[in-house]
Each structure stands twice: as structure tokens, then as C-alpha cells.
């Protein structure tokens, strides 16, 4: 697990805080504007003698180790050095440099499979297990920042997440972000987490669809076939009706949809019925994800009211998955370690936990399936672990012990 920010020593003034970290070789190859770049300087004498540092107006020079003495003598050059946490920042990343707090944040990490843009912390739902509780404040300035980030993302990035809060609260600004992503990253898929409620507005849905981004998937929670249960989970009366209306509007506008169901006390008793509801009414969805709980935010104070042991939901979950498979709706299990699932369900489990908040336990060290397992959220303490966590021993391991 690598954090997404670190303190660092920052000298000189910075004009543009959003920068792409690049080696000189990549800069020459990609021909980016140097004012948008933080030159990766590892202390190479050859690099310094090339005068690339002195003669180019970089956004900043980034030193992964101690600041080089000769850099301190360059008037007006912003130098970021001595990051407190090693390996947080690498060439290819997009960073935000805060000169006042001496904090460097990673907004995009090259090579990560979990890059997401947080577009707002506001939300119109108040889910009882929300891992990132909403903050009601004007954070619209994020949009302009993200419009600077998007052109700095690698062109070959396969998928980019958009998350919140609730992205649809941005209204026309969400349309601007989608249009920028289409123009700057035409081959990058967008995976957008939203409660979908605002898509009950037909005009707004048409505006979003009119961007004609070729590869957007909207990930929308539907917690039950029963309106009262869904509304209870999201703590908003009428949310079930708005969500269904939104799903239908998205389908009419030929948008791709993933449904998300968090496995908790309120939702598990009707997993089978929910699967039947999807098969009868929502066969246009592309994917259904069954989600394990993340013990953060509202989930912690509500834990006794939401937690359910995997052994108590695997039977209805298996039936629900089988029902979806009957009509060829793709389905996956997220955030649930393999060892608490029966073997017949392990093929559906995905390595879903973002790498910056992913960890493994001591018990995982000898597990033969660790490389295929999602592991755990780093926020998990023993208090929040499922029962019966154990290493899975392969036949080869057993044979090795027998012949040892």
C-alpha cells in the first residue's frame, strides 16, 4: 500500500500546482509544455550538465532524494525534494504541489489499476454504511483543477474512475469533465460511481449522453427490490423511485450500467428477490457487483446494525449469482477475501480494493491464492474482520509438506 500524499521540502515559488512528473527523456519524446511538468531529477551529473534544468522554464524540478546543492542556486526555480514517504511519487504521476503546507498529493498514479478523480464531496444521499461521508460545502473549484489533470493523464490509461460524493450534483460541470475526457483521453474508459438519482431528470440525462463518450459505465447502487429497504439504506425517502427512473433514462440513452449491491444486514435477506427483479426488469444492465463492506466513515458507528458474516450470506448470494448467470448478466464479488467464500464463488471474486488502501494479514503470507485475492482494506482492524480468515493451502503445498 502506497499513500497518495507526502510532505516534502519545497523551495522557490510555484506558478502552476498541477504538474506531470517526467524524466527528461520522456519530456523530449512527448513534447509537453515544460510549465506543466515537474522534471524528475535523480542527481545525475549528466542531466545537470545538459543545462536542461537551468535553461528550461519547468513547472518544478522534483528530486526524489536530498535536494542537490547546485539546484538551490537557480533563481526562480521551484524545487520539490526530500519527500518524507519514499516511493509515493514516480515518473508519470500527476501531482499537486501545495507550497504553503509543503504537501505533495498524487492525483494520478502511473501503473495503478485504481486511478480515480474525486469530483465533489457533496452528496444527496446519506447511506448508513458510506465510507466517505458527504461534506456540504462549495467545492466547485475542483472542476477547474480536474480539467488541468485530465490532459496530463497517460494517453494509454485503460480506465479512469470518477467518484464523489455524488458526481451528478455537478450538473453542467460533469458534462464539461466528460467532454474533456473524450477529447484528451479518447481510448480511456470512464467508470463513474453515482447514486443515479439525478438521472430521473430526462433533460440532464440527455445532456450527459450528448457528449457521446465512447466508453462510459455508470456504477449505480440498487440495494433491494423493496423500495423501503433501499430508501432506508440511503436514508432518503423516494430514492428507490428516482433511482429506477434514472436507470431507465440511462438505458433509453444507450448508456452502459453497472448495478452495485452492498452486502449488509438490510440487503442480504432479499438478495434472491433482487436478482429476480433485475432479471425481470433491468436486463439492459451490463454488470452486477456484490460489494463487501469497508469499515470507514458511517460504517464504523453503524457496524453492529450493518455487519453480516460472509458465511451467513454465501447461500443467498450464490443463488442470486446463479439467477443472473441464467440470463448471461455478468456479475462479480468485490471486497470479499477468497478464504471466506466457498470454492464455487471464488471465480466471481475480483481484486477490487484500490491499491492505495489495500493490505494483507499475517495469515495471508502462506496462502496459495494471495496473488488472486483482493485482501483487505487497510482500515480493517481485528474488530472488523470476518470469522474464519485462514490461508488456502494448495494441493502442491500439501504434497510438498508430505514429501518434506
- The assigned CATH architecture of the largest domain is Alpha-Beta Barrel
Low-pLDDT runs of 5+ residues are 398-404
Computed over alpha carbons, the radius of gyration is 24 Å
Strand order of the largest sheet: 1-8-7-3-4-5-6-2
Strand content: 15-25%
Described by strand count, sense and barrel closure, the largest sheet is: 8 strands, mixed
SSE run: EEEHEHHEEEEEHEHEHEHHEHEHHEHEEH
Q: How many helices does DSSP assign?
A: 13
CA-based shape: globular
CATH class group of the largest domain: Alpha Beta
The percent of residues in helical segments reads 25-40%
Mean pLDDT: 92
- The count of β-strands is 17
Terminus-to-terminus distance: 34 Å
Q: CATH H level of the largest domain: which superfamily?
A: Aldolase class I
How many structural domains?
A: 2
Examine the coordinates and then state which fold CATH places here, giving the name of the CATH topology of the largest domain: TIM Barrel
Structural class comes to: alpha/beta
Structure description:
The structure is a single chain. With 404 residues, this protein is of the alpha/beta class. It folds into two domains: 5-108, Glucose Oxidase, domain 1, CATH 3.50.30; 116-384, Alpha-Beta Barrel (TIM Barrel). Helix content is 28%, strand content 18%. The strands form three sheets. Strands 1-8-7-3-4-5-6-2 form an eight-stranded mixed sheet. Helix 9 (271-281) runs parallel beside helix 11.
